[in-house]
From TrEMBL:
GO function term, MF aspect, one: transferase activity
Name the record gives this protein: Glutamyl-tRNA(Gln) amidotransferase subunit B, mitochondrial
GO CC terms of this entry: glutamyl-tRNA(Gln) amidotransferase complex; mitochondrion
Species assigned in the record: Cacopsylla melanoneura
GO biological process terms on file: glutaminyl-tRNAGln biosynthesis via transamidation; mitochondrial translation
Amino acid sequence: MNYSIRWKCLVSCFSRKLSTVHKPQSENIVEYLNKSEWRSVVGLEVHVQIASLSKLFSGAKFDFTSPVNGCVSLFDSAIPGTLPVLNQKCVEAAVLTALALNCKINHVSRFHRKHYFYSDLPAGYQITQYDQPIAKLGQIKFNVFTPGIHKTAYEKVCNLTQVQLEQDSGKTIHDDFENRSLVDLNRAGVALMELVFDPDLSNGEEAAALVKELILILQCIGTSSCKMEDYYSQRVHSEWTPTCPSPPAPPLSWAPGPKSRTLVRFAVLPTRSTMRSYARLKRCNVARL
């Protein structure tokens, strides 16, 4: 009996402590989340196909109107003994793009292997760049104006982390009727430029305006056509996170974005209701503690 009485007293004391300490703490945090100004932070990664007649590391000609597996060399299909030969025009296009975006050109650049185990990547890895890309530390200026949302246009500046070269992968076609998957290697090895932007954007309108300005620049200097009909010559991926002035922001959440600037404004950002949902989720986590 003594042990049971002690146990009941201990449980009652612990429950009173939780009610007096943890409950007000969670309520204060929820109240702070409701009163604070949540905002979005958006970063973009843009992949553009370089306007080149041949691929990045092979002499195979590339045309998006070619028949299936009609533009594949021995290196593209990862035949043992074949070696890569860097396409000079692709390097020149990347340097020209970096200069147009006010980047600092690296005098020494190197490539890395990023391993993927996909059926449309015969070598089992992608040749790309990481710590020593073609260029770094660029900047792009653009005007933001959306009819019905903004009364006047305003200028926005977004910093560019780096410009790098990399290979594209092939294309996998899933046939549900025959229960099989087909591989087209025409796109495997095609030269891509990856432009990594800093998370300096705050809404979908700014993201769409940045992509539109980038397309105009690349088409003007002739380094990429940026046309969707040219076998996915441009792809936009977005990183989004809700953040608050005081508490630390959660990690950036990846969202494979649309391949057209028309849909960037709607796909890159959640709505204000999503912000409130995140606040409610934060409240539930605090309440469980």
